[in-house]
Amino acid sequence: MAMAIASSSSIREGDVVIVYERHDRMKAVTVRKGGELQNRFGVFRHDDWIGKPFGSRVVDKKKGSGFVYLLAPSPVLWTLVLSHRTQILYLADISFVICGLELRPGCVVLESGTGSGSLTTSLARAVAPSGHVHTFDFHEPRASLARKDFENNRINNVTVGVRDIQGQGFPEELTDKANAVFLDLPQPWLAVESVLICLRPNASCCSFSPCIEQVQRTCEAFRKYNFVDIRTFEVLLRSYEIRKEFLTDISVNNGEVEDASLPPQKRRRSDSSEKPRPDGGDAPNPSIGAVMARPYAETKGHTGFLTFARCQV
Amino acid sequence: MEVVKAGSCVLLDINNGEHFVFSRLTPAATVKLGKAKYSLAPVIGCPFGSQFEPKSSSLERSSRAGDGKDNNAGEEEEEEEENAATKDNRNLIDDNTAQTLSAEEIHSMKREGSSGQEIVNALIANSASFESKTTFSQEKYKRKKQKKYAPRVIIRCPTAKSVCEAYFSKTPAKIGFIRVDSLSMILSLANVGEMSNVLVSDMVGGLLTAAVAERLSGFGTVCSVYYTPKAPSLDIVGLFNFDSATSSRIFRVRLSTLLESYNSGLQNGEAAPLVVEQEKNMEDDSGTGKLPQSEQPMDVQPEKAVTEAEQAKDMEDDSGTGKPLQSDPSMDVQPEKAVTEASQTSVSQISENLEPASTNPTKQRLIQQPSNEDVSDWVKTGFSSLIVGALNADPLKTLQQLIPLLAPSAPFVIYHTYLQPLADCMFALQKERTAVSLQLSEPWMREYQVLPSRTHPHMQMSSTGGYILSGIKTLPQ
After folding, report:
1. pLDDT tens, B363-404?
2. Where would a tag sit more exposed on chain B, N or C end, judged by fewer CB atoms within 10 A?
3. How many other β-carbons are positioned within 10 Å of the β-carbon of residue A172?
């Protein structure tokens, strides 16, 4: 039962806890008796965490004012905290791949390359408990680190192999076993023939490539090997920030309003029904307040193209 | 599920995305291709993904080989690109005189039993302008004529992806305009999977409930909660061919039941079972006249009655946003029958009709009613995540009611077609300090055509798939 919160369970030694400081500051910590976490908010002892439910707020020991939240790990949180050994896939692509490959418990999925295990973690959760992920990376140390992460996170339905899928294809024993295949390779077209051999009929493959030239060559290979339903997408997530803003109502006070460039705090807040003073003097400047949303100024422009293709029946 | 079974539901993909129809494969099931109707009997026993074409008066299986290819794929693709450069459309005049084959001649070809492909070939042969077109233009012309004269139907398996895409392309209002990338994001953010106990407020026809149930496949529970006097339609769940392991873990419950269990739990320090409330619910849910109350919740007819009556209403009702998703009339029962004989024409009983004289009293219903024990267990431990897709409900009020029912550290995801209600909700939640990791996002998706020398984004694109507010519940202080 990895990465599923067991509602009634509390934090035990050996558990991985996601320590949440801020929406963009989180880290994964493995709980150890006598262990300690030090950050800008203070010192936090692991012993205080043991026995508490996930979702608890803990206060630091030194000053007693700093706090962090202890959250249960999930594939989404793991993607945000894991150590990057390679460029990773993020939530928008991960969720689209899982839905696009029509994954569900019991599916057998093949993946190459493993990279930092970001997608692998989500794949494992999607097919658990009866399904399996066979993931391959040609870099032995990276494969080893990924194995360690899965073990630490108690993910037991993933097998990490060290293999060059581009050069050698998938192992023969996976012939006709796969319900889905995912490729994140520099030259995925070299693996398409092997993918065809591994895929069960009507099952799909998804290939992720940053460059359009790679996509073109991959689609060409899919066509050559008689794949159907070949479709290429881009997905992104646009995030919004919200603030309560106050906008000046210029219809009052005979059009004589206070300096609109002053920050909202300096202006008096009131509703627009307030009448202007007869002498036209220091009338309070009415403004209209509301919660407003706008996209964050910084956003991801591109991660990669996702090409799906289905094996014929 | 790899092979089409009798009595199951299939998604008929006509001309590769042009038209979608859901059909339940009863012996009388048919599909309309062009102007004629064809029996779907040949489909049974074939694998999902099979393609069929009309041959004389029945459907025959055909191969999709050459589907993804242009005329000459592989090494010849380069040659094509060179040829394309020499031709252009400077001398082509669009005045409808290029085609010399008349409509009458086409009709007589059809009467004589010419195949669709033969008609297409004849049209090409009799087109004065065909030869002067570029290769790309010729292929486009060919595909266009094939769609009209040689229709094909691909038998697709209903999955969250295929069902969502079909509805989104034809009748998006029925699923609250949830696009497939939005749906996939919701499922991931809510960490749906093994051992999950997911609370869903589903006012989008059952799409969310079904998608969650598919990702659980019986290894977790999905509880669809409602608060309207009559339970909202969850008909989409019926399209998925769920086995009994999966459907035994799909529940529907009234919000007041959950809240009363929660409140009494607060008073007593534990969640108490509420037998009286359960019976009251059964009466309320019936919607089609009085039906006998049964002591065992599993036997209750009203649940079936409501599903069927709504299914009928659903088929007749046109949401008014574009072409309605055409339900093949053979899907299930004739609407009129369903309303009056509601207690006898549930989905599970249709399957029973196909089995010879089988009496199966424990035949699995699509959606279960929870026992008192179920309710008190869920309320005591808390649901492991929450998904809300209820466009008429105020998001903040909804979350204020439902977040207390979640376990601490449980993620919640609320979808809406408008940004402002979610922004207001997020602002209030930030002040309340009941959640962390609050995020307001808008999924963006674009599809590309990737062909030699013709790679570009699709000309048509969906501008919006709605907005998603997500967060994680923290333990109240």
Report:
1. 568 899 999 999 999 999 999 999 999 999 999 999 999 999
2. C
3. 9
Distance CA(B337)–CA(B334), nearest Å, equals 6
Does residue B45 contact residue B4 with C-beta atoms inside 8 Å? Answer: yes
- Backbone torsions φ then ψ of B254, nearest 5 degrees: -75, 140
Interface test with A, best of B409, B424, B433, B445 (most A CBs within 10 A): B409
Contact between chains at A96 and B181 (C-beta distance less than 8 A) = yes
Say how many C-beta atoms besides its own lie within 10 A of residue A196's C-beta.
18
Residue B213 belongs to what H/E stretch? helix B207-216
Question: What are the pLDDT digits (tens) for A183-215?
Answer: 999 999 999 999 999 999 999 999 999 999 999
pLDDT at residue B58 greater than cutoff 70? yes
- Which chain A residues are Cβ-neighbours of B439 within 8 angstroms? 23, 239
Identify the CA nearest to A181 among candidates A313, A76, A311, A3: A311
Q: What is the pLDDT of residues B433-460, one digit of tens each?
A: 899 999 999 999 999 999 999 999 999 9
Q: Alpha-carbon distance B267 to B260, whole Å?
A: 11
- The two tokens of residue B351 are 């399957």
Using the Cβ of A211 and the Cβ atoms of chain B, whether some distance falls under 8 Å is answered with no
Task: Write out pLDDT tens, residues B239-278.
Answer: 999 999 999 999 999 999 999 999 988 777 644 332 223 3
Euclidean distance between CA atoms B298 and B364, whole angstroms: 9
Domain ranges of chain B: 3-62, 103-147, 160-271+364-473
B196 touches chain A (CB under 8 A): yes
pLDDT in tens, A223-235: 999 999 999 999 9
* Cβ B363 vs Cβ B333: under 8 Å: no
Question: For residue A25, is pLDDT > 60?
Answer: yes
Q: Which residue has the higher pLDDT, B132 or A305?
A: A305
Q: Which of B68, B183, B194 sits opposite A228 (nearest CB)?
A: B68
What is the C-alpha separation between B274 and B265, in angstroms, rounded?
11
Looking at this protein, which amino acid is placed at residue A12?
R
Q: Say what angle helices B255-268 and B275-285 make with each other, to 10 degrees.
A: 170
Buried b (16+ CB within 10 A) or exposed e, A125-146: bbbbbebbbbbbbbbeebbebb
Give the helix/strand (H/E) hosting B153. strand B153-156
Beta bridge partners of A42: A39
- DSSP structure class, residue A103: -
Q: Do A7 and B381 touch (CB under 8 A)?
A: yes
Q: Phi/psi class of residue A170: alpha, beta or left (left: φ > 0; alpha: ψ in -120 to 50)? A: beta
In chain B, positions 377-436, which contact chain A (CB-CB < 8 Å)? 381-384, 407-411, 419-420, 422-424, 426-427, 436
Structure tokens at A294: 């706008």
For residue range B196-225, what is the model confidence (pLDDT) as tens digits?
Answer: 999 999 999 999 999 999 999 999 999 999
Distance CA(A280)–CA(B38), nearest Å, equals: 82
Q: Name the fold adopted by B160-271+364-473.
A: Rossmann fold (3.40.50)
Question: Where does residue A97 rank: exposed (0-12), middle (13-18), buried (19+ CB within 10 A)?
Answer: buried
Q: Specify which residues A208 forms β-bridges with.
A: A306
Coil, helix or strand for A305?
strand
- A69 vs B contacts (CB less than 8 Å): 436, 474
Residue of A nearest to B378 (CA): A7
The pLDDT assigned to A271 comes to 44
Percentage of the residues of chain B whose pLDDT score is greater than 70: 75
Q: What is the mean pLDDT of chain B?
A: 80
Which residue from A54, A57, A105 is facing B194, i.e. has the nearest CB? A105
Q: What is the mean pLDDT of residues A266-290?
A: 54
Query: What is the pLDDT of chain A when averaged over all its residues?
Result: 90
Q: How far is CA B243 from CA A216, B6, B49, B239, B359, in A?
A: 40, 14, 20, 12, 18
